[in-house]
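Please, structure for the following, as C-alpha cells.
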Amino acid sequence: MGFIAVAMMLMLIGPFLHTGGPMADSRPTAAGWWCIGSGVVLLLTGLILMTVRDVKNAPAAEPDDSFHYTCGFPPLM
C-alpha cells in the first residue's frame, strides 16, 4: 500500500512542476515528467505486488454482533 500511496502523491505533484506562463501554454519540466513517470512505475509495482501476495479485504463484521464494544465500552442496554 505504501508504493501506491507514494505513487499517487508523485503523480499528483508532477503536473504542477511546469514551465512558466498559463497552465494551458506550459509543459511539465524534467522534474515533472520524472514525478509522473516514477509515480506510474510505483503504481504498477504496487498493484503487481498486491496481486502476487493475494491481498484481500478485511472480513465483514457479524450482522448479529450485539455484544460488540465501541471504544472499549459495553453497549447500553
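The radius of gyration is 22 Å. DSSP finds two helices and no strands in the chain.
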